[in-house]
């Protein structure tokens, strides 16, 4: 800001122009720092799978595409990297044309992508990039990324004493093909991240934080994807042993809240589904404890309506519940005990 004002003053003095009143729109710069979005990566995987049935892929190929495949196979066997890249591009283009014409199925097209990706990785032409599936909706929580290509700092918020050995992009849990983050600060197309096992990060969940999103993201998100807003906690500095305290905790919208906001009647829906489940059990089960089965079915349905639409994580849910039950004030050790 000082440099901008100094430049304006220099030009005005040079041209003998009266100094103007300078007004700037600095809302994002002022308030964006107050909020951090924390979300969990629940799994990670390769973007493509290598097809196992090459003969299935060849069905429906044009003669030109078959020729490209044979040339690609020969170049790969020779270790000719440049020719491999050339035939990969040709094969992909011909197969896309075949899919548009209806001669190739979408499964075959996906198989070709996987095959070409495997060849590229085998010859060392690209680094493997994993897709990390994160428990959020990009449209709900980070709408400016999709709408105006606004980039936000995104980093892991734990495992910081370990070097990240993987590269990854982020994909949300919705059905939107645009629900992914593949552009990052510094012009990067992937993030350095830690590897996940089948149960998340080794030693527990794997959490990331998105910073500088406190200006507009919360207001713009709305109910897109029917996820609702995330849970909110207010954190203040404290003289306690950990240096902070959570002074307020508010659970996010439940599935029933989201349905109600979309002009549905969750209470009526619950009763209807409950009666249908009970009727189905009465029809299919001649003996046994029907009363207990009805209670179990009703309990499962009630949880579905009362839980948040996000993928439920037991540890984080218990920690937030502890805060709510404790009048919104707790310290870190209570969260650990709750988990």
UniProtKB/TrEMBL annotation:
It comes from the Eukaryota. It catalyses: L-arginine + H(+) = agmatine + CO2. Pathway: Amine and polyamine biosynthesis; agmatine biosynthesis; agmatine from L-arginine: step 1/1. One of its GO terms (molecular function) is arginine decarboxylase activity. Gene3D superfamilies: Lyase, Ornithine Decarboxylase, Chain A, domain 1 (2.40.37.10). Its EC number is 4.1.1.19. Its cofactor is Mg(2+); pyridoxal 5'-phosphate. Keywords: Decarboxylase, Lyase, Magnesium, Pyridoxal phosphate, Spermidine biosynthesis. GO terms for biological process: L-arginine catabolic process; spermidine biosynthetic process. Belongs to the Orn/Lys/Arg decarboxylase class-II family. SpeA subfamily. This is Arginine decarboxylase. The lineage of its organism: Eukaryota, Viridiplantae, Streptophyta, Embryophyta, Tracheophyta.
């Amino acid at each position: 800001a000082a440099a901008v004002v100094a430049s304006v003053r220099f030009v005005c003095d040079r041209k003998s122009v009266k100094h103007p009143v300078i007004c700037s729109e600095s809302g994002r710069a002022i308030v964006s720092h107050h909020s951090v979005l924390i979300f969990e990566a629940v799994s990670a995987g390769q973007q493509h799978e290598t097809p196992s049935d090459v003969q299935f892929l060849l069905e429906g190929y044009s003669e030109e595409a078959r020729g490209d495949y044979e040339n690609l196979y020969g170049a790969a066997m020779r270790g000719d990297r440049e020719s491999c890249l050339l035939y990969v591009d040709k094969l992909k283009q011909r197969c896309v044309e075949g899919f548009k014409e209806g001669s190739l199925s979408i499964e075959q097209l996906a198989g070709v992508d996987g095959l070409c990706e495997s060849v590229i990785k085998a010859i060392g032409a690209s680094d493997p990039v994993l897709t990390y599936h994160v428990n959020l909706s990009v449209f709900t929580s980070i709408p400016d990324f999709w709408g105006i290509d606004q980039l936000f700092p995104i980093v892991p918020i734990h495992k910081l004493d370990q070097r990240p050995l993987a590269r990854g992009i982020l994909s949300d849990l919705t059905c939107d093909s645009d629900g992914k983050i593949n552009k990052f600060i510094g012009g990067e197309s992937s993030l350095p991240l830690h590897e996940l096992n089948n149960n998340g990060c080794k030693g527990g969940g794997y959490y990331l934080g998105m910073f500088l999103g406190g200006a507009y993201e919360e207001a713009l998100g709305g109910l897109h994807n029917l996820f609702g807003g995330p849970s909110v906690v207010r954190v203040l500095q404290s003289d306690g042993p950990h240096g902070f305290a959570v002074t307020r905790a508010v659970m996010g919208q439940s599935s029933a809240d989201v349905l109600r906001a979309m002009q549905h009647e969750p209470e009526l829906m619950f009763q209807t589904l409950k009666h249908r489940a009970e009727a189905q059990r009465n029809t299919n089960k001649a003996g046994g404890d029907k009363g207990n089965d009805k209670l179990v079915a009703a309990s499962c349905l009630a949880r579905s309506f009362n839980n948040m639409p996000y993928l439920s994580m037991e540890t984080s849910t218990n920690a937030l519940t502890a805060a709510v039950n404790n009048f919104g004030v707790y310290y870190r050790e209570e969260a650990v005990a709750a988990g």
